Amino acid sequence: MTDGHESAPTGVRRTTRQRTAVSSALAEAGGFLSARDLHDRLAAQGERVGIATVYRTLASLASTGEVDVLLRDDGESVYRRCSSAHHHHLVCRECGRTEEVTGPTVEAWATAEAERHGFRDVRHTVEITGICATCTL
């Protein structure tokens, strides 16, 4: 006999209304958001999602590669749902506008340096920051 609650297998997160709300709000945002900013957006939409659930969901999405994570200058992590193809980010330091960019030269350099030093299965992240055209006006 069960108590009416199904458990997900160990290590697998079951989909809940709250997790779906977090994931959807992040996708709709388009840009990078902190967990607190995302929590505030959800609250403004009338979604009752605890801050701990927001943090857990973002960590889970990041661990599976469904979202990208950047560390801001102030040390806070921000999250964004991105394309699945390998890319880097060009981020405005003023408004946070973010563009996904590819970098074939960076890819070639990273591969060459890894090989030169005997490294395999190399991964890398490149974040380029600057001031966007709108913010320089």
Which key phrases capture this entry?
137 residues; alpha+beta; Arc Repressor Mutant, subunit A; Dna Ligase, domain 1; three-stranded mixed beta sheet; two-stranded antiparallel sheet; 5 strands; globular; disordered N terminus
Q: Could you characterize what this model shows?
A:
With 137 residues, the chain is an alpha+beta fold. The protein folds into 2 domains: 17-81, Orthogonal Bundle (Arc Repressor Mutant, subunit A), CATH 1.10.10.10; 88-136, Dna Ligase, domain 1, CATH 3.30.1490.190. 39% of the residues lie in helices and 17% in strands. The protein contains 5 helices and 5 strands; from the N terminus they run H-H-H-E-E-E-E-H-E-H. It has helices at 17-29, 35-44, 51-63, 104-116, 133-136; strands at 67-71, 77-81, 88-92, 98-101, 127-130. The strands form 2 sheets. Strands 4-3-5 form a 3-stranded mixed sheet, with no helix packed on it. The protein has a two-stranded antiparallel sheet with strand order 1-2. A hairpin with a 5-residue loop joins strand 3 (88-92) and strand 4 (98-101). Helix 1 crosses helix 3 (51-63). It is globular. Residues 1-11 have low confidence and may be disordered.
